[in-house]
Amino acid sequence: MQERIYLDNNATTRIDPKVRDIMQPYFCEKFGNPNSLHKYGTETHPAIQDALEKLYEGINANDSDDIIITGCATESNNWVLKGVYFDLIHNKDKNHIITTEVEHPAVSATCSFLESLGVEVTRLPINNEGVITAEQVHRAITDKTALVSVMWANNETGLIFPIQEIGKICKEKGVLFHTDAVQAIGKIPVDVQEANVDFLSFSAHKFHGPKGIGGLYIREGIELTPLLHGGEHMRGRRSGTLNVPYIIGMGEAMKLSVDFLDFENSIVRKLRDSLENALTEIPDVFVVGNTTHRVPNTTLISLRGIEGEAMLWDLNKAGIACSTGSACASEDLEANPVMVAIGADKELAHTAIRISLSRFTTQAEIDYTIEVFKRAVVRLRNISSSYSA
User: How far is the C-alpha of 59 from the C-alpha of 202, rounded, in Å?
Assistant: First the structure.
């Protein structure tokens, strides 16, 4: 039977069995609409409240803050950007949003849409270390700036952005600050108080919870025009019947992700580093970003002379799942945008492979992956005209 090894955890993660088990009763037994007044509805309330408390504790939100349940981080990101447009930009004195060149499409595409409505968007370039600096944000802020939106950790490289320093600057300047924390939660500590963020987006399926549910943290006192209207769910901030089993699952997944942070930073990091050390012994193989300021599970590696899609073909035949970048852009055969942003030459920018581990990854899987990688490099370079040249 062929090996099946999953190393694409930045795209999605498997549901932790403990999460699956805690969700199970709310599909067929306690299935009531929580807005109903009868017992079928009200018996779901304690579990929902418990799940919400786990979310608040997981990111150190205050009870007076809001965590609103959404369908995913894409919805959360859209809500922040479009809500700020209606609240501070449309027919008002603000007209400027600051973001980066390497945001997830949920942010970058929404910013492009807002540009079509007349919004001025500044996209800060990353430096040769793969990140932006707080000083870049400071220089870009004007009296017209309504929002700064910077990801906490990059989905391609795993590199961590200086969120705390950016948050401090935004607070001093009186500018709202949003961070897409999808790739940070469950990998590194995330503390909204320490980071001075006003909005934070997350998706459960990135930290071993179910797909199709996420959240948006909104700091106390901030009004944000709803993206969805139609009811009084979530105190009128996000209409739609609550997805009870998924909320409960997301809460448990958040709790477990915090419980496993030390494991991520020790065991998962050790596995990731052993993989990198073995692969970078191959000539003309490069890892993007240093290990210190990178989440512990992620490697973006380039293999000169080998198209990323060709390497994926060999890996997939051997039962190994990796990617050439974000799954949200997996049908796009353009050069990896992060590789382009850091100044890689055109040929090298097409060779990136993203490997992302989880707490379920084993040493045996890493050993097998190293073996397959080395064989694939030899085969593909032997038939590569660009590498021989």
Answer: 10
Beginning with the edge strand found earlier in the chain, give each strand of the sheet holding 298-303 in spatial order: 285-287, 298-303, 352-356
Could you tell me which residues come within 8 angstroms of residue 117 by beta carbon, excluding any fewer than 6 positions away?
85, 90
Residues contacting residue 26 through CB under 8 Å, at least 6 positions apart? 44, 47, 244, 245, 248
Let me know if 328 is a catalytic residue: yes
- CB of 218 within 8 A of CB of 227? no
What confidence tens digit (pLDDT) does each residue in 211-269 have? Answer: 999 999 999 999 999 988 887 777 778 888 899 999 999 999 999 999 999 999 999 99
Q: How many CB atoms lie within 10 A of CB 178?
A: 28
The catalytic position among 28, 111, 322, 328 is 328
Q: Name the β-bridge partners of 286.
A: 302
Direct distance between the N- and C-terminal alpha carbons of the chain, in angstroms, rounded to an integer:
39
CB 301 within 8 A of CB 279: yes
β pairing state of 176-180 and 285-287: unpaired
Query: Would the pTM of this model clear 0.90, i.e. be above it?
Result: yes
- Say if CB 86 and CB 259 are below 8 A apart: no
CA distances to 305, 306, 370 from 381, in Å: 6, 7, 16
